[in-house]
Amino acid sequence: MNPIRTIRRLACMLTGLTAALAAAVAAAPAALAATGPYPPPGPPAEVIRIGPAAHTFNGVTGDMTSWQITLIALGAAIAGAVVGVLVDRARAARRHRPATTT
Q1: d(CA 27, CA 48)
Q2: What is the CB neighbour count within 10 angstroms for residue 16?
């Protein structure tokens, strides 16, 4: 095998792994962010007497939580890597190698 091809494949593999790592690092702060507990501990007497205020959840507001965003980013990175490997193997299988004479 040509050593340049080996180096090129290694460079492509390292680039893909670096991109996946960068995506994971970029999404990590959002995934690890935490908010205060809801409802707050020890509510005042008015809240106990009247009841808690209306609470909206993600299904109503349409927001996406950070762990969902992280899962989507990781899934996209893995899917991209799989597609890249399949395309590379398909291209390698279609290459015509010249016949050698002995």
Answers
A1: 39
A2: 15
Give the alpha-carbon dihedral of 68, 70, 71, 73, to 10 degrees. 120
Q: How far apart are CA 8 and CA 15, in angstroms?
A: 10
* Dist. CA 63–CA 97, nearest whole Å: 54
pLDDT score recorded for residue 79: 93
- C-alpha 102/C-alpha 100 separation (Å) is 7
What is the spatial distance between Cα 35 and Cα 37, in angstroms, rounded to a whole number?
A: 7
The segments of the chain whose pLDDT lies below 50 read: none
Amino acid at residue number 90 = A
Peptide bond into 39 cis (omega under 30): yes
| Helical (H) or strand (E) element with 27 | helix 3-32
For the chain, give the number of residues: 102
Tokens of 16: 């893909």
pLDDT given at position 74: 92
Instruction: Quote the pLDDT of residue 40.
Output: 57
